[in-house]
Amino acid sequence: MTSYSQLDGGPQLVLAAGIRTPMARAGGMFAKENVAHLGAVTTRELIAQTGIDPAIINEVITGCVGQPFDQANVSRVIGLRAGIPQHVPARTVARNCASGMEAITTAASNILSNMGDVYICNGVEIMSSYPLLFGDKMTEFFTELMKAKSGMRRLKLFSSLRLSFLKPKIALLGGLTDPTNGMIMGKTAELIARDFQITREECDAYALESHRRAQVARDNKRLAKEIMPVVALGTKRGGKSMRNDDGIRDDMPIEKLAKMKPYFEKPDGIVTIGNACGITDAAVSLLLTTKERAESLGLSPLAGIRSFAWEGMDPSRMGLGPVYSSDTALKKAQLELSDIDFIELNEAFAAQVIGCVRAFEKQGMGEINMDTLNPNGGAIALGHPVGATGARLLLTLAHQLIESDKQFGLATLCIGGGQGGSVILERL
Amino acid sequence: MTEFLNGFPKPKNCPQPGACIRVERPEDGLAIVVLDPPHRSLAVLDAPLLSDLDSVVKDLENDSSLKAIVFAGRTPTQFAAGADLDGISAITDKSEAHQVVKFVHGIFRRIEKLKATTVAAVGGAVPGGAYELSLSCDYIIALNDPKTRIGLPETQLGIIPGWGGSHRLPKRIGIPSALDAILSGRLFNAKTAFKRGMVDRLAHEDQLVPIACDVAMGRLKVHKKERGISKYLIDRNPIARLIIGSQVSKMIRAKTKGRYPAHPIAIKLVLNAFSANAHEMVEREAKAVADLATGDVCKSLVSIFFASEAAKKFARGTKEFKPRKLEHAAEIGAGVMGGAIASVLAEKGLNTRLIDLSRDALDAAVIDHQQAISKKQKRRRLKPHLADAAIDRLTTSDQINGINNAEIVIEAVAERLDIKQQVLQQVAEQVPDDCIIATNTSSLSVTAIAEGVRNPERVVGMHFFNPVRKMPLVEIIRGEHTSEEVLIETAALAARMGKTPVIVKDVAGFLVNRLLGPYLDEAMRLFVEGVDAKRIDELMLKFGMPMGPLRLLDEVGLDIALHASASLEEAYGVRMTPCPGINALANDDRLGVKTKRGFYEHGKGKATLCDDLSTFQTGNACKNLSDSDIVDRLILSMANEAARCMEEGVTATQQELDLATVFGMGFAPFHGGLLRWTDKQNKTEIVKRLEKIILSPDIIERNGGIEKFTVSSWLMR
Is B363 within 8 Å of A53 when comparing Cβ atoms? Predict the structure, then answer.
């Protein structure tokens, strides 16, 4: 367990500002984007809108799960491409699905240990660009070919080449499978569904509500408050910038969801593509600093951080991670679940969200008012660009507290590999 | 001083003989010849230096102990700037020019024949004569640095490489590559020059001279690029040469329309490089240079070159004031002009914030920017990481924000005084006090726009031409309050954007549009009064304009032209009153290229004249004018206005005005600009021709006709 409480003293941490790109379905608008460009776009805009001098930034910390092979320590690439001076260091952090939130808690630890007080925290993921990899046989073939000196040897090698060697490994699927138990993430959700007797109908109804809420939040410009329009690389003349999340299915009939076949466990599973999060691309940039420093910079913060917690648990039920970490975070914040005005709980799978809700209750932490859970829809509608989501939840939650003039909010997500992460925000 | 050089004018502060070249002897058998003239910031092959070179070579010839000779510049990034253009442009006598060329040839030939191994260690700019000096050495080692630019740009100045370059380069790199290098006049970077075999090896700064010495002493082997079989298949094959010759000549004729005599001569010299012996080579080059250098085209081109160098020099600042290297810019208005300006700013290294109320306009500008950059990347004009950075640097906003660190704001919003003033006042509240505020207005007064802006001394006009990426001129408008420092920094930015800045007074239409106004109007009037549209445009093409005036009207847009001429009339009165005929022709669907129809039909292929034009020709007063009368009316209407500009001091010098006409309206460079053309015709002759025009009945009748052609007092001087 790793946790922090503002009540233990120290400077008041604040999210001073934030901005994100729209979330684009993988292979869609951002198909030709790359992590460094998209991350630099939001970072640059954040600096422009806050008007801070980038030279005062202590570090650029970026969460990213699938770092591009040609942009090592992508945080550094983002910092430099965003026009942040060379003397500002940068590092990339990873905590799988919570990498974007990890960027914030890493920066928080730095501030708390007096290492600095102005941090750019990014969450960036371009799942479109996850590569296909050559399989072992093909790799071996190439290795042997490099070693081969004589023409005969090469000829012999080529004669051993089989079409089957070309079958690629899909990095995306590999990344979504837990290597310690061999379970792909969807299967862990099926397990939770069985544990809590969650039905297909409940999941589909939840998914539908996520889309409906997101549609409302998009149409009444609630989401636009956190989104900057982005002209994606590769946009043709006459094209437009992307201005909204494009995973939201407008006015979707429930029948459409009901018709979908289970994806992970056939034929009896309940997790379908329709009630799971979408694969998406996005970038989020947040400015983490202290209340004092924000004031001296002339910024009015979005929200303060009251507490946060990271917890580990059973990898095969990783979807319940939020229950563990939120319990700790609430205790640290000296708050009850009923004190929390809004919850952003990442919707990896509808079954997993419902599982968490039931587990909260079962653990005696209290009943969750479903109106306050993901009021603007969640990853099922918007998508889950893994490294970006943690930061996106915090940004969305902070805006929600401001919009509805409420005090406390909880952002939490489950993490592949069996972890939970929770951050409690409060309005100052 | 050597008597052969008597014909070569000496620079003003000519030093004592022997002062320009230093010979160092760091070890036995090695001499380093350093070009280090005290009277030049960068060595130039002028009379004193050449005369010193002559005597140094004499000493070297007589020194039998020498094994190796290295020719080097003062520093690795400064070799020499080529031949003394001032001197060359001052030569008017053919036989003198002939003699000078032959004399230099003699020195270079003797360098070539020296028994010792000769190596040129070059870097920085190595154009023309400087490269020809290197070509007569056994090896050329070049500085591996972006500053290095090597080539033979002579044809761009209306002459040919006359100190052996026309022969030695083809022998070194083959006829096809040499033709390309000489006819394009391109200056190559170090890597390309090495790839093409123009130099034999590259070296970094602190290694340049030591490596050159090692090569000269034989301690380091350099592999010379061999042309191999293509030497026999192409260079020494008369049939291949014939084919190349006819193809290239055809291409050049199409490009230059026979206006530039240097190109065909250069082609001939290069093609025959392999068949000429040393003596013929000298004679041919000397004769060609003598003819060309004393000719008018060369002098015109050299004068434009000097004018543009002077403009760049202004942009470098003075001893007291050096311009900042700007890092943060903002562009207000994402229309065609604003978007393109922002794009170039971002490409050239400025963090640029583009602001417009319309997100759609911003999107279009960003897409254009991304496409322009990726096109450059595809053509290998930009390395991938630089292309990325260029794309990253452009940010957008639909409100005025994110400009608190801007060092310059360029405004390109709607051409309305109240809108511009309002926008700039808003901008001024957010930017630092020393942020330059530039307006890309084309028709409003910069002084008026500056009103109400805090610290008006930082308000300046920056008039770009459309299309921004292509047009090389920027008029820098000095408002009433504009400070000298702001002018310099704005000019420096224009230069950094790859443009040539010309400082212009804040008068209506500034310079280029003020001159184009009467010219385009006259074309319109000639057309309405019965002159065939085709005839008007063809006559101007023949004169040397890049396109005919009616075609230009289509490109500009008839509505824009109308708007511009209205504001010119308001400022200058009846002499600028626009021809009413354009109103009949122009309507919302017929505004030129943008509506695909104006004087021409602009479809997919070549533009063709519309077939209904005769319906707009309501008179026939000009139908019987001769070709030369038509040309006179068009050009003199412009020249007379240019003379008025000189009277009013719209530009500081005639050279700047000429430069603006060449770069801003494409006025034939071989004429050297509008007023240089006037000078060549002889001013009294021009006055006579203007007086003849005034007496034409249609001019007398025309509202403002007499005022337009009344001879400017500047021409009477």
Answer: no
Question: Does residue B359 belong to the interface with chain A, where contact is any CB pair within 8 Å?
Answer: yes
Q: What is the per-residue pLDDT for B3? A: 60
| DSSP H or E stretch at residue B306 | helix B296-315
Chain B neighbours among A 15-74 (CB < 8 Å)?
36-37, 40-41, 44-45, 48-49, 51, 53
User: Is B402 in Cβ contact with A48 (below 8 Å)?
Assistant: yes
Residue extents of the structural domains in chain B: 3-294, 328-505, 525-650+682-716
Whole-angstrom Cα distance, residue B566 to residue B562? 6
Among B575, B574, B579, B569, CA closest to B618 = B579
Q: Which of A40, A49, A82 sits opposite B402 (nearest CB)?
A: A49
| Residues sharing a CB contact under 8 Å with residue B362, sequence separation 6 or more, in sequence order | A229, A241, B334, B354, B356, B396, B397, B398
d(Cα B348, Cα B594) in Å, to the nearest integer?
29
Two tokens at A51?
Answer: 């008007």
Given the residues A64, A203, A277, A414, the one annotated as active site: A414
Contacting A residues, span 295-334, partner chain B, CB-CB under 8 Å:
none
Tokens 């410009």 belong to: A221
Residue type, A46: L
Percent of chain B with pLDDT over 70: 99
Closest residue in A to B370 (Cα) is A233
Instruction: Return the sign of the alpha-carbon dihedral for residues B279, B285, B288, B292.
Output: negative
The residue type at B575: R
Architecture of the domain delimited by B525-650+682-716: Orthogonal Bundle (1.10)
Q: A328 is written with which tokens?
A: 């700790």
Tell me: ipTM over 0.90: yes
User: How is chain A split into domains, by residue range?
Assistant: 134-170
Contact (CB<8Å) B368/A237: yes
Choose, out of A228, A241, A243, A244, the residue to mutate when testing the contact with B (most B CBs < 10 Å): A241
- Options 3.40.710.10, 3.90.226.10, 3.30.70.360, 3.40.50.300; CATH of B3-294: 3.90.226.10
Chain B residues in contact with A241 by the CB 8 A cut-off are 359, 362-363, 366
pLDDT of residue B1: 46
- How far does B355 lie from chain A, in Å, by closest CA? 12
**Two tokens at B510?**
């500034």
Fold match, B3-294 / B525-650+682-716:
no
Dihedral of alpha carbons A143, A145, A146, A149, sign: positive
Amino acid B583: pLDDT: 83
Question: How do residues B119-140 score in pLDDT, each as one tens digit?
Answer: 999 999 999 999 999 999 999 9
Q: How far is A38 from chain B (nearest CA, A)?
A: 9
Whole-prediction pTM? 0.92
Give me the helices (H) in B466-615, please: 484-496, 512-528, 533-543, 549-556, 558-572, 581-585
Question: A221 CB near a chain B CB, below 8 Å?
Answer: no
* Residues 6+ positions from B481 with CB-CB distance below 8 Å: B447, B450, B456, B457, B459
User: In 3D, which of B194, B117, B111, B112 has the Cα closest to residue B150?
Assistant: B194
**For B328-505, CATH number?**
3.40.50.720
Tokens for B603? Answer: 């479809």
Confidence of residue B10 (pLDDT cuts 50, 70, 90): confident
**Residues with Cβ < 8 Å from A261, sequence gap 6 or more?**
A267, A272
**Catalytic residue of the set A64, A97, A203, A356:** A97
Interface of B with A in 396-435 (CB under 8 A): 396-397, 401-402, 404-405
The active-site residue, picked from B463, B481, B563, B671, is: B463
For residue B522, pLDDT over 70 is answered with: yes
Strands B68-72 and B21-24: unpaired
Q: Are A241 and B368 in contact (CB < 8 Å)? A: no
- Would you call B167 a catalytic residue per the annotation? no
